[in-house]
Specification:
Elements lengths: L3 H12 L7 H13 L9 H15 L1 H10 L6 H12 L7 H14 L3 H9 L4
Helix pairs in contact: 1-2, 1-4, 1-5, 2-5, 3-4, 4-6, 5-6, 5-7
């Protein structure tokens, strides 16, 4: 993982896809971060989350998502997609807004349908 902070930001952004962060989604982000030592250097997660909320209110979710996704280096895109899919599916309900975010990430990252199927299948690994 080259830039854990960017992936963390993208996970937080995707958790806001339906306009609110469910407890299960927040817990999924926490578990992903706790399981990978690369996230230890992310910085103040509360500050990052507040900055993301502000960015969403100023620019909207779509523009914020595109901006954050464009900062993910190619080598980290599959990992970022898998992490975001794990967060969005954590509450057991993939809402329309959640699916739209994953569709946007697929497009922005240039992922094939086969790659997305594999990443969705492997999202909890």
């Amino acid at each position: 993982m080259r830039d854990a902070r960017r992936i963390y930001e993208l996970m937080v952004l995707t958790a806001w896809a339906d306009g609110k962060v469910q407890a299960e989604e927040a817990l999924a982000v926490h578990r992903i971060v706790a399981a990978d030592p690369a996230f230890a250097q992310v910085g103040n997660k509360s500050e990052i989350s507040r900055a993301i909320q502000k960015r969403i209110s100023e620019k909207g979710l779509d523009a914020s998502l595109r901006e954050a996704a464009s900062a993910i280096v190619e080598a980290d895109r599959e990992l970022a997609f898998r992490c975001c899919a794990r967060v969005l599916s954590a509450d057991g309900d993939l809402a329309v807004e959640d699916a739209q975010v994953l569709d946007a990430l697929q497009e922005l990252f240039g992922l094939s349908g086969e790659a997305v199927q594999r990443l969705m299948r492997d999202r909890n690994r």
